[in-house]
Amino acid sequence: MNNLLIFLVLLLVPLRSAGKGFADILEDLQVQEGDEFELLDWPSWESARGNKVLVNVDAFGAVGDGVSDDTQAFVNAWKQACSIPKSVLLVPQGRRYLVNATRFKGPCADKLVIQIEGTIVAPDEPKDWDPKSMRSWLSFYNLTKALFQGNGVIDGSGQKWWAASCKKNKSNPCKGAPSAVTIDSSSAVRVKGLTFQNSQQMNFVIARSNSVRVMDVKVSAPEDSPNTDGIHITDSTNVVLQNCKIGTGDDCISIVNGSSSIKMKNIYCGPGHGISIGSLGKDNSTGIVEKVVLDKAFLRGTTNGLRIKTWQGGSGYVRAVRYQDVRMDDVSNPIIIDQFYCDSPKTCQNQTSAVEISQIMYRNITGTSKSEKAMKFACSDTVPCTHIILNNINLQRSDGTVETFCNSAVGIGYGYVQPSAECLSSSDKDIIIIQKKEEEIAQSSTEHLIHTEL
């Protein structure tokens, strides 16, 4: 754990110094040789049952037939498990538990394990939903050192919610729908192995939390299901997503305001709208996201690839972002920065203020684009995108050529860059300096490795 924290702090310290050059930023954004996620010790309730207190929802009256309302049984089981140290709240396999909108509150006694082996299913009728919980189904609040794990499924039964969406039927009013699972105002939480599917809206939300680890989860919703973001991170820090397979009708991963020190590794995305930072700045609001790393990802058939999206009129910044070792297959907009994002039935007005976007690095990005503009940097004339770095980019199109679009974007490309990014404004001096810096970093790494081996 300490190694990961040190990595995030040292590698991605906020780059606040006015006048930092491309070479300085490149060095700050380097990945150390051999840098990997720390393997976390995931406790198993089965291997340690001797010193754990098992709290089975069936013992509190849960029926598990998918028809009977098991909400109160889950609430009562939670109260007991939460109050006793080293408890395991067990949702047994082979059953289907119908649970209404519920907020499971902490703080709880130390080392609570939520072991989900069966299926938890939401009511499927929107009109019967509790009007006090219209934006949340299963919410876990104020937890510390809790572990969610198992081979179970959390099913939001979202089909009727999707049909009622204004995005599916424009004659319907635009209303919010519940997020399936929310980890809220919590710290040191781990989630492993679960499947989230068919959420009413967002599948899994991490909100106002710190130190959250998500591993080996699967998120699934139909490609045409509206607003079903896979994993949504808001106002949270020190979050790790690893070995996740996500296919939805919206962003596979979305990172929004107040989030920093986010690391994603070994991510599969598709279908969906890609891996997104934003949207930010809506209704002239302030949006801040920094220190984000995506390391090793595969995106297939998505409408966007690596996307940063902000509304006109906003303020704040997105900075210190690194994308590396990403493969695209038939992606419509593989690399896109859009400071003119407008997800509104009405035309958005032109405004001069914007969320500032800077210090964005793309390295080893390959694959195929469905659209002609494989790279698009649509930036504000008054708040340009700066310090964009492209290194070893190879994006092709099976039925035609590809190109890069730039508007008010400052950056450089070096190594192999296809399509050419000559539209990024920079100087030859920047490229020469950054190539020298690359050589210095490579030499330093080699010397360090030799010294270590001796």
**CATH topology title of the domain at 251-454:** Pectate Lyase C-like
Total strands: the figure is 30
Q: Percent helix among the residues?
A: 10-25%
- CA distance, first residue to last residue: 27 Å
The level 1 CATH classification of the domain at 251-454 is Mainly Beta
Report the radius of gyration as a whole number of Å: 23 Å
Please, how many helices?
5
Low-confidence segments: 1-18, 32-41, 448-454
Largest sheet: 19 strands, parallel
CATH superfamily of the domain at 251-454: Single-stranded right-handed beta-helix, Pectin lyase-like
Could you explain how this protein is built, in words?
Keywords: Cell wall, Cell wall biogenesis/degradation, Glycosidase, Hydrolase, Repeat, Secreted, Signal. Its EC number is 3.2.1.15. One of its GO terms (biological process) is carbohydrate metabolic process. GO terms for molecular function: polygalacturonase activity. It comes from Sesamum indicum (Oriental sesame). The protein is mainly beta. It has a domain at 251-454: Pectate Lyase C-like, CATH 2.160.20. The protein has helices at 2-11, 22-28, 71-83, 159-163, 428-453; strands at 53-56, 65-69, 87-91, 96-98, 102-105, 112-116, 119-121, 136-141, 144-149, 153-155, 179-184, 187-192, 195-197, 204-207, 210-215, 218-220, 231-234, 237-247, 253-255, 259-269, 275-280, 286-300, 306-310, 315-331, 335-338, 356-369, 373-378, 385-396, 403-407, 409-418. The strands form two sheets. The chain has a 19-stranded parallel sheet that branches. It has an eleven-stranded parallel sheet with strand order 5-8-11-14-17-19-21-23-25-27-29. Helix 2 runs parallel beside helix 5 (428-453). The longest helix is centred in the C-terminal third of the chain and has 26 residues, at 428-453. The chain starts with a helix and ends with a helix. Mean pLDDT is 88; it is low at 1-18, 32-41 and 448-454.
